[in-house]
C-alpha cells in the first residue's frame, strides 16, 4: 500500500511534471514564434514591430538569453541604452558564455563613446573560443582603439580580424579592410590606406561604401581620375541618400 501510494505519488509528480512540461513547451513554442517574428521585423528595420513581438515573447518566457539579447539590440536601435544594457546583462546572467551579447554591449558603449568599457566587452567576446564570428568583435575593437588614437593596437585588431574571418565573409571581410584603411588614414599613411581600400572592394565588389573610401584615398594621393571613377561607381551601386550625396559632392568638386 505504502509502495503503491509512493508509486502513485511518483506517478502524479511525473504527470504534473509532464503536464507542466507540456504546458511549458507550448508556452515556449509561442514565445519562440514571437521571438522569431520579432527577429524578422528587426532584420527588416521595423524596430517598433520587433519590440512588440519581443515584449510578447518575454511575457511568455523571461529566461531566454537569446530573447534578452534581441531586446537589447532593438532597444539600442531605438536609443534606449539603459534598457539595452539591462537586457544584455540579463542575457549574460542567464548564459555567461554569450560572446554575441558581450559584443553587442560593447557596441552600445561605443555609441556612448565609453571606449574603455567597449574594449573590455570586445576583448571578452573575441577571446571566447566558442564565438563563431570573432572577427566581428575584432573589427569593433579596431574602431575603439582608433578612436582612442591607439593606432598600432587598432591595426593589430583589424589585421587579426582579417586573419580569422572566413574567406566567404564578404562584406565583413571588406569592413575589416575598410577599418584598417581608416586607421592608416588617421595615421596619414595614405599608401597603406589605399592598399586596404583596394582590398575592400576586391572582397566585396558591390560594396558602395568601400568605393567611396577608395575615392577619398585616391584624392589624398591626387589620383583624380581614379577618384572620379570610384565616386561614380558609388552612384551605380547604391541609392542610399547619405552616400550618394557625398559621392555627388565629391564628383562636383573634381569637375570644377
Task: Please describe what this structure looks like.
There is one protein chain. 81% of the residues lie in helices and 0% in strands. With 256 residues, it is an all-alpha fold. The chain folds into three domains: 25-96, Tetratricopeptide repeat domain (Serine Threonine Protein Phosphatase 5, Tetratricopeptide repeat), CATH 1.25.40; 97-205, Serine Threonine Protein Phosphatase 5, Tetratricopeptide repeat, CATH 1.25.40.10; 206-256, no CATH class. Helix 8 (151-164) packs antiparallel against helix 9 (171-186) and helix 10 (190-203) runs antiparallel to helix 11. The longest helix has 42 residues, at 2-43. The chain is globular, with a radius of gyration of 24 Å.
Computed structural class = mainly alpha
Helix run count? 13
Q: Can you name the CATH architecture of the largest domain?
A: Alpha Horseshoe
Q: Regarding CATH, which class of the largest domain?
A: Mainly Alpha
What is the count of β-strands?
0
Number of domains: 3
Order of helices and strands: HHHHHHHHHHHHH
* Helix amount: over 70%
What is the third-level CATH name, the topology of the largest domain?
A: Serine Threonine Protein Phosphatase 5, Tetratricopeptide repeat
Unreliable stretches, pLDDT < 50, 5 or more residues?
1-22
Kindly state the mean pLDDT as a whole number? 90
What does the overall shape look like?
globular
CATH superfamily of the largest domain: Tetratricopeptide repeat domain
Gap from first CA to last CA? 101 Å
Amino acid at each position: 500500500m505504502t509502495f503503491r501510494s509512493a508509486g502513485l505519488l511518483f506517478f502524479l509528480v511525473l504527470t504534473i511534471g509532464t503536464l507542466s512540461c507540456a504546458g511549458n513547451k507550448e508556452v515556449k513554442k509561442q514565445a519562440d514564434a514571437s521571438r522569431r517574428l520579432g527577429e524578422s521585423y528587426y532584420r527588416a528595420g521595423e524596430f517598433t514591430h520587433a519590440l512588440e513581438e519581443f515584449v510578447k515573447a518575454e511575457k511568455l518566457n523571461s529566461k531566454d538569453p537569446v530573447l534578452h539579447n534581441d531586446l537589447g539590440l532593438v532597444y539600442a536601435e531605438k536609443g534606449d541604452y539603459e534598457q539595452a544594457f539591462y537586457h544584455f546583462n540579463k542575457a549574460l546572467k542567464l548564459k555567461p558564455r554569450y560572446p554575441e551579447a558581450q559584443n553587442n554591449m560593447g557596441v552600445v558603449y561605443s555609441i556612448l563613446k565609453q571606449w574603455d568599457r567597449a574594449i573590455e566587452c570586445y576583448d571578452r567576446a573575441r577571446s571566447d573560443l566558442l564565438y563563431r564570428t570573432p572577427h566581428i568583435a575584432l573589427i569593433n575593437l579596431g574602431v575603439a582603439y582608433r578612436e582612442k588614437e591607439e593606432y598600432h593596437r587598432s591595426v593589430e585588431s583589424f589585421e587579426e580580424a582579417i586573419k580569422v574571418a572566413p574567406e566567404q565573409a564578404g562584406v565583413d571581410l571588406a569592413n575589416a579592410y575598410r577599418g584598417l584603411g581608416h586607421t592608416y588614414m588617421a595615421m596619414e599613411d595614405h599608401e597603406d590606406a589605399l592598399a586596404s581600400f583596394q582590398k575592400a572592394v576586391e572582397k566585396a565588389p558591390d560594396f558602395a561604401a568601400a568605393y567611396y573610401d577608395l575615392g577619398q584615398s585616391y584624392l589624398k594621393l591626387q589620383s583624380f581620375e581614379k577618384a572620379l571613377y570610384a565616386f561614380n561607381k558609388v552612384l551605380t551601386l547604391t541609392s542610399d541618400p547619405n552616400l550618394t550625396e557625398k559621392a555627388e559632392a565629391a564628383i562636383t568638386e573634381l569637375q570644377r
